[in-house]
Design a protein that fits this description.
single chain, Potassium Channel Kv1.1, Chain A, 2 domains, 6% strand, BTB domain-containing protein, SKP1/BTB/POZ_sf, BTB/POZ_dom
Length: 375
C-alpha cells in the first residue's frame, strides 16, 4: 500500500461539502451549532470540526485545532489550506462552521491519532485492541502521519507481539497481528503468525479460500487489505499438509527389495513378510474407518491438526510378525515433533515483502525491533 500525499477531493466538490455541513448541523444543537451528543472536544479552542465514520453508520465529530492538523502531515496542510472544498468557509456574513468530513475513516482510530496530534498522552492507549490498531495503521498510511507517532509505534508493536499467545485459538486476531507485523516491519512476527494461520486454517470448498474455526472466510470482515497476504498463507498451508502426506505415503510405499523397516538386520523373507503385513494393516484400518487419506494436499479442506490425528491413528498399528517392535508410530511422532519445533520460524515473506517491510520499519522508526533478516 502506498502512502497518500495529497487529498483526492477537488474544488468542484464545494457544493457537495456545503450540503454535508448543512446535513450534519440539522440536529438539536448548542449555541455554536454543534450537536453536543455527537461532539468530542479534543481542543476546546479548536476552530475545525472533523466528522468521521459517516459510511460506517456510527459517525463521530471532533473539535480540533486546524493549525495542529496542518503541522501533523502535508495531507492536512494541503486539504485545509489549499484550494479544496474542505478549506475554511469564506466569511460571507453567515455563521458557517468549518467542517471536514472523512466518511470512510474509523472514528476510534481517528480519535487516537487526533489525541496524539494535540499532545494528549493521558488519553492514548498503550495497548489498543488489534482491530483498532489495524485501523490506526490504515489512517497513518493514508494521511502520511508516520512522524507523529513517536514512542507510540514501538509500544503498539510490543502490544501486538504480546497478544499472540492469547490469539492462538483465534485465527481472525492472528490475521490482524500478521497484518500489523507486515505494516510495522516486524519480520519475525510476520513469519510466525503467518505460519500459525497456515497450520490452523481450513479451506472453503466453494471459494477455495481460507476459513477460521467457524468456517468464516478470513478475507471477509476486515476494513484493510488482507488478500495478498492470504495468498502466501494459503500456499504455505498446502506445503505443511503435503509434508505430512509425503511422510505417510513414504511409509505405504512397497519395495520388493526392502527388508523390515524396523529390523533391517533380519532375514530378507521375514522382512518382506513384516513389511507386507504392516502395510496391509494400515490400509485395512483406513478401510474400516472409511478415512482414506488423499495423496495430495489440494484435496484436504480440514486444518492440519485433523490430518495429523488421522495419520497418527493410521500408522499406529503393530506388525503381525514383529509385534510392538514393528510400527511407524514412533517415527511419525519424531517427524511431528520436529515439524512443530521448526514450522513457526520458516520464512514466509517473499524478497519483495522483505524489502517493503524494511521500508515500513524505517517509516515507523522501529529499526531496533526489526530483527536481523538473514540470507
Amino acid at each position: 500500500m502506498e502512502s497518500q500525499t495529497a487529498p483526492k477531493r477537488g474544488a468542484e466538490d464545494v457544493a457537495e461539502n456545503d450540503e454535508k455541513r448543512q446535513k450534519l448541523t440539522d440536529t438539536p444543537t448548542d449555541p455554536d451549532g454543534i450537536n453536543p451528543q455527537a461532539l468530542i472536544v479534543v481542543d476546546p479552542d479548536g476552530d475545525l470540526i472533523v466528522c468521521a465514520g459517516e459510511d460506517t453508520g456510527a459517525p463521530r465529530r471532533f473539535r480540533v485545532c486546524s493549525a495542529a492538523m496542518r503541522r501533523s502531515a502535508r495531507f492536512f496542510k494541503v486539504l485545509l489550506f489549499g484550494n479544496f472544498a474542505e478549506r475554511k468557509p469564506d466569511d460571507d456574513g453567515r455563521d458557517k462552521e468549518w467542517l471536514v468530513s472523512l466518511p470512510e475513516d474509523s472514528p476510534d482510530a481517528l480519535q487516537i491519532l487526533l489525541q496524539i496530534i494535540h499532545a494528549q498522552p493521558a488519553n492514548i492507549p498503550t495497548s489498543p485492541d488489534m482491530s483498532t490498531l489495524c485501523q490506526i495503521l490504515v489512517l497513518v498510511d493514508k494521511y502520511g502521519l508516520f512522524d507523529i507517532l513517536g514512542p507510540w509505534a514501538p509500544l503498539w508493536m510490543k502490544a501486538a507481539a504480546a497478544r499472540v499467545a492469547d490469539a492462538l485459538a483465534d485465527i481472525p486476531t492472528l490475521v490482524e497481528i500478521n497484518w500489523i507485523a507486515y505494516f510495522m516491519g516486524n519480520y519475525d512476527l510476520f513469519n510466525s503468525t503467518g505460519n500459525e494461520i497456515a497450520a490452523k486454517a481450513s479451506l472453503n470448498r466453494e471459494s477455495d479460500a481460507l476459513c477460521d474455526e467457524a468456517g468464516m472466510l478470513l478475507s471477509a470482515g476486515y476494513e484493510f487489505p488482507v488478500e495478498d497476504m492470504l495468498v502466501h498463507i494459503t500456499a504455505r498451508r498446502r506445503e505443511f499438509l503435503q509434508e505430512y502426506l509425503d511422510f505417510l505415503y513414504s511409509c505405504l510405499e512397497f519395495d520388493n527389495d526392502i527388508s523390515c523397516r524396523i529390523d533391517p538386520a533380519g532375514l530378507r523373507d521375514n522382512g518382506l513378510r513384516c513389511t507386507t503385513l504392516t502395510l496391509g494393516e494400515m490400509c485395512q484400518k483406513m478401510l474400516e474407518t472409511g478415512d482414506f487419506i488423499p495423496r495430495y494436499s489440494a484435496d484436504i479442506l480440514s486444518p492440519l491438526k485433523i490430518l495429523v490425528d488421522r495419520i497418527k491413528q493410521t500408522v499406529n498399528v503393530e506388525g503381525s510378525f514383529h509385534g510392538k517392535r514393528c510400527t511407524f508410530a514412533k517415527s511419525f511422532l519424531d517427524f511431528d515433533a520436529d515439524f512443530k519445533q521448526t514450522y513457526k520460524t520458516r520464512k514466509l515473506a517473499t524478497d519483495r515483502d522483505q524489502k517493503q517491510m524494511e521500508i515500513h520499519c524505517k517509516r515507523y522508526r522501529l529499526e531496533k525491533t526489526m530483527t536481523e533478516l538473514g540470507p
